[in-house]
């Protein structure tokens, strides 16, 4: 179980991730990551340092992706931890000429390491539970292609639809509320706490 001090420090890392990333505070954002950190998202899978670069490029182009956090829990085993944090991802962009907001609810599932007294994220894998899409103008008319929606898992199909419509390459087999992908992620989390050499096999 986590000590109060460990849980508070880990929660701070998670909150700093969201605040500094969404604010474009890239220098401080880099400090939440382990040197070997890995990020997986619908639109990006790769080393944390590259995620910082492409996030900065998108921010400067006006890409609008924001994060809000909710409930938090973590399991700690010595210098390792696995944290889960309820989150909402929201993105605004045009789809079919209509500006929309997509809201995706899920969890951040984080593998962390404590080195020299400081916790950092070794691997982040979001779990996508459900999403929805709404025109910013409630009077606007928008029709989505059901065949495109069906290409993606239920938990993030509207987010994927928006991102694909705006030129992103979206990965199609990420963990949701149920299924093999999230069961495998839970196994990898347990193995990390038990001393596995790597934090699973990131996408």
Strand order in the largest sheet: 2-1-6-5-4-3
Mean pLDDT level: 96
Annotation field: number of helices: 6
User: N- to C-terminal separation?
Assistant: 28 Å
State the shape: globular
Structural class: alpha+beta
Helix content: 25-40%
CATH class category? Alpha Beta
Strand content: 35-45%
CATH topology: Nuclear Transport Factor 2, Chain: A
What summary fits the major beta sheet?
6 strands, mixed
Give the strand tally: 6
As residue ranges, the low-confidence spans are none
Integer count of domains: 1
What does this protein structure show overall?
The protein is of the alpha+beta class and 203 residues long. It has one domain (4-185): Nuclear Transport Factor 2, Chain: A. It has helices spanning 4-23, 26-29, 48-61, 146-149, 157-165, 180-193; strands spanning 33-40, 45-47, 64-77, 80-95, 98-115, 118-135. The protein has a 6-stranded mixed β-sheet. The longest helix is centred in the first third of the chain and has 20 residues, at 4-23. The two termini are 28 Å apart. The mean pLDDT is 96.
Brief synopsis:
The chain is α+β, with helices and mostly antiparallel strands and 203 residues long. It is 32% helix and 38% strand. It has a single domain (4-185), classed as Roll (Nuclear Transport Factor 2, Chain: A), CATH 3.10.450.
Topology:
Layout: H1 4-23, H2 26-29, E1 33-40, E2 45-47, H3 48-61, E3 64-77, E4 80-95, E5 98-115, E6 118-135, H4 146-149, H5 157-165, H6 180-193
Parallel strand pairs: 1-6
Antiparallel strand pairs: 1-2, 3-4, 4-5, 5-6
């Amino acid at each position: 179980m986590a000590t109060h001090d460990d849980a508070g420090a880990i929660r701070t890392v998670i909150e700093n991730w969201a605040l500094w990333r969404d604010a474009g505070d890239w220098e401080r954002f880099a400090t939440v990551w382990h040197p070997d950190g890995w990020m997986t998202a619908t639109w990006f899978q790769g080393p944390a340092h590259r995620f910082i670069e492409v996030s900065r490029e998108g921010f400067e182009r006006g890409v609008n992706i924001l994060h809000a956090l909710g409930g938090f829990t973590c399991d700690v085993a010595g210098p390792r931890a696995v944290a889960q944090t309820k989150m909402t991802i929201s993105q605004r962009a045009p789809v079919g000429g209509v500006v929309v907001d997509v809201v995706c609810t899920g969890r951040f599932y984080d593998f962390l390491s404590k080195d020299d007294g400081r916790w950092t994220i070794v691997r982040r894998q979001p779990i996508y539970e459900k999403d929805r899409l709404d025109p910013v103008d409630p009077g606007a008319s928008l029709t989505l292609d059901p065949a495109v929606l069906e290409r993606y898992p239920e938990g993030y199909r509207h987010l994927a639809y928006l991102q694909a419509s705006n030129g992103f390459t979206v990965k199609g087999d990420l963990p949701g509320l149920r299924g093999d992908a999230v069961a495998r992620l839970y196994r990898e989390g347990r193995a990390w706490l038990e001393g596995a050499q790597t934090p699973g096999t990131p996408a």
